[in-house]
Amino acid sequence: MAARIRAEGPLSFNQWVEACLYDPQDGFYSSSGSAGRRGDFITSPEVGPLFGAVLANWIDNRWTDLGKPENFVVLEAGAGPGTLARSIFAAKPKSLTNGRYIAIERSEAQRKIHPEEVESVADFPNDAITGVVIANELLDNLPFHLYSADGEKWYETMIAGQFEEEKGREVEPPMPLPPQSGSEIPVQIEAHKWVEQAIGIVNEGAILVIDYCSTTPKMATEPREKWLRTYRKHQEGSIVTKHPGTQDITVNVAVDQLPDGFNINSQADFLTSNGIKDLIEEGKEIWKKESATGGLEAIRARSRIVEAEALLDPNGLGSFSTLEWLINQ
Ligand SMILES: C[S@@+](CC[C@H](N)C(=O)[O-])C[C@H]1O[C@@H](n2cnc3c(N)ncnc32)[C@H](O)[C@@H]1O
Residue 210 belongs to a domain with what CATH number? Predict the structure, then answer.
């Protein structure tokens, strides 16, 4: 990276994040980085199969709304190691009896370990679909620009020489914001484009984005550490300009920078309105009947109670946001 900066000059923050996470040789996700217990961070699908079982309900509800089409497609973007896909298949959604599940994952290392039921690809397919696009914790991982204010104006933050930050060109923030000295914001052009692309590929159906979210004006009043974080092996990583390629870089998603037209809910409310409580009750019943045998099914059923606590926690995963765009429904 140092050689590239010497040759090309300072990188925008967007280019920096892109290289740190996705450089084909040295990017964090091109080598060992991933979600999971043996990976670097735990996401909702990695808590256990309950999250996927609720999403399977949501998928079947969208399929029913569309009149149960035979050619229904689930596109899961940023599928990581395929854990969510495994849980969704385990829940046996009716929509997939004759449907297709396409897992879009940029990292080849992770595509290689996807389950065999899914079609694994690196990018959006060309053909439009009838169905849904799902992305859990993808948008927070897309490269973004960083703007900082000096009391009078906003500037793009660049990464120079030995990876120190420096003031770049003067810029306009995505909405009018006072250029208070020390104020910083992420500018998430790639996240906006990704949602536009997802909307563009769905003829009829829905887009579901699940992520930790905020707004640009809120982030402008907070220190950067509140919305820009690094992770490695389940620990917070070091500062974002250190050790390129060895840690995840993630940012709160500014919902005001995304295309309009979504319904927003907390993850806790979304899971509740898509049947998590029934699945917990069902788990308790199975445990009551089968605990004496101690079989795997009984243990799985019981673990739903603990998984639900984590998924609904108002100070943790339950506080994430779900954003739904309904297309031609
Ligand atoms: C934080 S991980 C989330 C993985 C999984 N969805 C989960 O919730 O456990 C984000 C994943 O998105 C992938 N990714 C990033 N940009 C992508 C893109 N444009 N298209 C597909 N996958 C992408 C990364 O390689 C990484 O595996």
Answer: 3.40.50.12710
- SS3 (DSSP) at 78: coil
The Å distance, Cα 249 to ligand 1 centre, comes to 12
Range of the domain at 258: 13-144+185-275+304-327
Q: Is residue 48 within 6 Å of ligand 1 at its C-beta?
A: no
Nearest CA to ligand 1 atom 11: 78
The answer to whether residue 3 sits within a structural domain is no
Q: Residue 284 and residue 290: Cα distance in Å, rounded?
A: 10
pLDDT at 233: 83
Integer Cα distance of 316 and 320 in angstroms:
7
Indicate whether residue 105 lines ligand 1 (CB < 6 A): yes
152 falls within a domain: no
pLDDT tens digits, one per residue of 177-212: 999 999 999 999 999 999 999 999 999 999 999 999
Residue 163 CA to residue 158 CA, distance in Å, equals 9
pLDDT in tens, 231-279: 988 788 888 988 899 899 999 999 999 999 999 999 999 999 999 999 9
